[in-house]
Amino acid sequence: MRKAAYFLIIWFILSSGISPLAAGMSKEGWSLKWEDGHSIYFVRNGDKNEFRIVCGDETVGAELQFLVNGKKPQANSLVTIILDKTNIIMKADGGGIVNTNCSECADNFARVLQGVKYSKKTAVWLSDGSQAEFDTLGARELLKGTICVTGFYH
């Protein structure tokens, strides 16, 4: 019975297009978890720093979430994401989340998603001057084939 259940799980993973690596839920420093119908790809740097890529379900678009020194970005503030030598500036909403509801937001999200896969280092700077660096090791493998529908195109 266990063998049949194991076979069905493997068959589902392979036939659904989910990367077997993603099903394993971690690669190097990056991890994947499911929460309230969302796929959340994340990496931590210590206890108080976290970079999250949230892929929404059919009702909610993708978003970026950050913790730097234990704090979210301030409401309606600018967040700078540095991917090697490229700076991408995005605006946090009233809850400190970077959403993808506008055209520029959606385009920048796509740049961040690609950048995380191919950059050596990622850093996040908040408007209050706090900053954190994140390793991208393992991100390419974990995010391979990931499609996150942004709020703008939702």
Descriptive notes:
The chain is built from 4 helices and 10 strands; from the N terminus they run ααββββββββαββα. It is an alpha+beta fold. It has one domain: Immunoglobulin-like (Sandwich). A 6-stranded antiparallel beta sheet has the order 1-2-3-4-5-8. Strand 6 and strand 7 form a beta hairpin. The longest helix has 16 residues. The radius of gyration is 16 Å and the shape is globular. The protein starts with a helix and ends in an 11-residue tail after the last helix.
Offer a few descriptive terms.
Immunoglobulin-like; 154 residues; disordered N terminus; four-stranded antiparallel beta sheet; globular
- Count of the domains: 1
Give the class-level CATH name: Mainly Beta
Q: Work out the number of β strands.
A: 10
Mean pLDDT level: 83
Strands of the biggest beta sheet: in what spatial order?
1-2-3-4-5-8
